[in-house]
């Protein structure tokens, strides 16, 4: 409907890299996502921004950072018709009666070509949505009205790319909220009540579902809607309507909400397909039918269904553009990876990991030094008391000068990752809370009752974590316990407890070792480039606890201390043979070096045959060669 007075509205505009559609793994995404700024526009001025300047647009966001939690308002709804047919051209869509009467403008999407037309329809509302969930329902309803359009534009934080110097159709209409409600949203919600299960039409639901089958019937109704990709908010609304109209007596509202919450924790495609029950007989065992474990592994592998990938030939692989691996912490932790943080108890390992998740959640610096990206953090805690975790988090918030940290703490998992149910649960929680950085502390506890020295359950657990990173862009941090140094020739990697699968499958491994008032961080392995130089952090007082703070890079990686230990070993053995522990203690006291550095020095001297290793009974003993003592 065209207005007589030009409407003005707020919308967030991004002027960076105008007209360019960033690839999913582009390293500029962090800067791009944080660069949406509110502007006040008319329909005509927005058309110029989008179809002449080529700027992208989204809902108005707090701080200009695009994510659902920052949603302030949206006065637009977009439709993407990517069918690539004559019906998906802007000219054809402009002739649709509803679009002709209520859309503001249309323009070709960036990937559109004359042979394969793809279009975007933009509706401008008379008043803005200020709740992201209500906005999602309205956008979903519009996608439902125009079947075949991209359903994922309903994301409250969805961005729409512009296209510079392109044609457009200015219809100049404003979509009034009462028309949107009556002609789009209400028919959509009504359709959800009668939704099938995606395979064959559902049997009619009895007009009065009696006690004994209400919960099972409600679970089936909700499951069929979730299976079809409906949002949790829309399903909740439809479920309450269904409950009041057909259940006798209706379920308590809290029970309806509980059913929706339980079903929506599962990824779409992982739910069993069942028909609503009209029988008054409860299940024989008094429980709901079990769901197939691990169904998420064979369900959809992306939010937008695509054809199965085809294999690539050698020539095709050579032509691929090699892109830089996106990072969470530059040079240390890559996006979508598995990362071990190994250390002995009480070394500061968990505190450093918690600070990393806090930095990511706040969009700040890890240890006050390393940019940690920005997103929602999740800490799955298997051993730290909740009050201790809260105390540390409060100190980190005070240290950073923030009052809110988008981080969630979970008291472990109901099922562990040695079973498919654990992976299903973890994946569902990551999706539900939109987690991008997740810590599982300690990693050994994700195996449940399995032995961490048994390669099979460890391999299966890590394979499940890797599969999750392929489904969603999440990065895992896995704090792990380290055993004490064993043999003289042992390396830091050998000290990581359990199966060597943990080491082999990790993309990055950090070692944390406390020495007096400093904590040393060594980068033992990095799949995506050279290892970072060793550095240290110290504990700084903060209200009401302590926080870890970067204290400098160890430029020589400990080489200087190693050089000091080598002559100290020779000097100690100049007095006569020494047993292993006595030699380590003597050299450590003389040089103030840690046990590992002393052991490395001893190993080097043995390899160079400058000292000899032998045994006195069951004790390892070192001495100088005979010629060195003459």
What structural class do helix, strand and pairing data support? alpha+beta
Q: Give a quick account of the main beta sheet: strands, pairing sense, barrel closure.
A: 9 strands, mixed
Radius of gyration: 30 Å
**DSSP helix fraction:** 25-40%
Instruction: Please count the helical segments.
Output: 19
Question: Which regions are unreliable across 5 or more consecutive residues at pLDDT < 50?
Answer: 196-207, 269-307
Indicate the multimeric state.
Answer: single chain
Strand content: 15-25%
Mean pLDDT across the residues is 81
Global geometry: elongated
The neighbouring-strand order within the major sheet is 17-16-18-19-13-20-21-22-23
| Termini separation | 105 Å
Total number of beta strands: 26
Topology:
Elements (H helix, E strand, L loop, with lengths): L8 E6 L14 H5 L3 E5 L1 H11 L2 E3 L1 E2 L9 E11 L8 H4 L3 H6 L2 E4 L10 E11 L2 H14 L23 E2 L6 H17 L15 E2 L3 H14 L4 H15 E2 L4 H12 L49 H5 L8 E3 L3 E2 L3 E6 L5 H14 L2 E2 L3 E2 L4 E6 L4 H15 L6 E4 L9 H14 L1 E7 L13 H17 L3 E7 L19 H5 L2 E8 L2 E9 L8 E7 L4 E8 L5 H15 L4 E2 H12 L3 H13 L4 E5 L2 E5 L2 H4 L1
Parallel strand pairs: 9-10, 13-19, 13-20, 16-17, 16-18, 18-19
Antiparallel strand pairs: 1-2, 1-3, 4-5, 5-7, 6-7, 6-8, 11-12, 14-15, 20-21, 21-22, 22-23, 24-26, 25-26
Helix pairs in contact: 5-6, 6-8, 7-8, 7-9, 8-9, 11-12, 16-17, 16-18
């Amino acid at each position: 409907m065209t207005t007589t007075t030009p409407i003005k509205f707020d919308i967030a505009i991004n002027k960076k890299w105008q007209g360019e559609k960033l690839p999913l793994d582009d390293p500029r995404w962090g800067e791009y996502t944080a660069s949406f700024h509110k502007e006040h526009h008319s329909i005509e001025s927005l058309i110029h921004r989008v179809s002449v300047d080529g700027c992208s647009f989204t809902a108005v966001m707090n701080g200009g950072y695009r994510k659902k939690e920052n949603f302030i308002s949206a006065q637009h709804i977009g439709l993407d018709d990517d069918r690539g047919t004559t019906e998906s051209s802007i000219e054809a869509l402009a002739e649709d009666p509803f679009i002709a009467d209520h859309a503001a403008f249309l323009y070709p999407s960036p990937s559109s070509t004359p042979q394969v037309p793809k279009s975007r329809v933009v509706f401008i509302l008379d008043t803005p949505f200020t709740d992201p969930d209500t906005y999602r329902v309205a956008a979903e309803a519009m996608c439902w009205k125009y079947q075949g359009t991209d359903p994922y534009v309903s994301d409250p934080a969805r961005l729409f790319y512009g296209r510079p110097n392109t044609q457009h159709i200015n219809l100049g209409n404003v979509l009034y909220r009462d028309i949107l409600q009556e002609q789009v949203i209400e028919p959509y919600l009504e359709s959800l009540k009668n939704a099938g299960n995606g395979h064959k039409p559902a049997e009619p639901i009895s007009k009065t579902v009696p006690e004994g089958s209400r919960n099972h019937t409600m679970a089936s109704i909700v499951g069929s809607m979730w299976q079809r990709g409906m949002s949790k908010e829309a399903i909740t609304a439809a479920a309450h309507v269904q409950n009041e109209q057909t259940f006798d007596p209706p379920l308590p509202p809290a029970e309806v909400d509980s059913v929706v919450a339980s079903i929506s924790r599962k990824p779409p495609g992982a739910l069993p397909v069942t028909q609503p029950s009209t029988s008054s007989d409860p299940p024989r065992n008094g429980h709901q039918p079990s769901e197939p474990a691990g169904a998420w592994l064979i369900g959809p592998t992306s939010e937008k269904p695509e054809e199965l990938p085809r294999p690539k030939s050698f020539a095709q692989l050579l032509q691929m553009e090699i892109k830089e691996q996106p990072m969470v912490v530059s040079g240390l932790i890559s996006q979508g990876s598995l990362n071990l943080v190994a250390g002995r108890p009480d070394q500061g390992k968990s505190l450093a990991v918690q600070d990393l998740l806090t930095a990511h959640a706040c969009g700040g610096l890890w240890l006050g030094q390393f940019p940690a990206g920005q997103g929602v953090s999740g800490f799955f805690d298997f051993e730290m008391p909740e009050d201790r975790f809260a105390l540390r988090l409060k100190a980190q918030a005070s240290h950073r000068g923030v009052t809110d940290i988008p981080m969630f703490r979970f008291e472990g998992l109901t099922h562990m990752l040695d079973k498919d149910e654990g992976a299903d649960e973890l994946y569902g929680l990551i999706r539900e809370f939109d987690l991008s950085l997740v810590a599982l502390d300690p990693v050994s506890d994700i195996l449940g009752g399995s032995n961490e020295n048994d390669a099979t359950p460890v391999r299966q657990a890590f394979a499940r974590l890797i599969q999750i990173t392929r489904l969603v862009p999440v990065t895992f941090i896995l704090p792990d316990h380290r055993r004490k140094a064993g043999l003289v020739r042992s390396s830091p990697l050998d000290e990581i407890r359990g199966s060597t699968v943990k080491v082999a499958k990790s993309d990055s491994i950090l070692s944390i070792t406390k020495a007096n008032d400093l904590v040393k961080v060594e980068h033992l392995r990095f799949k995506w480039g050279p290892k970072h130089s060793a550095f240290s952090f110290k504990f700084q007082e903060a209200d009401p606890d302590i926080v870890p703070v970067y204290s400098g890079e160890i430029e020589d990686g400990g080489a200087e201390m190693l050089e000091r230990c080598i002559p100290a070993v020779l000097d100690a053995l100049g007095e006569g043979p020494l047993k292993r522990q006595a030699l380590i203690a003597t050299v450590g006291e003389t040089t103030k070096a840690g046990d590992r550095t002393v052991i490395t020095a001893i190993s080097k001297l043995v390899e160079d045959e400058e000292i000899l290793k032998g045994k006195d009974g069951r004790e390892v003993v070192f001495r100088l060669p005979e010629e060195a003592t003459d």
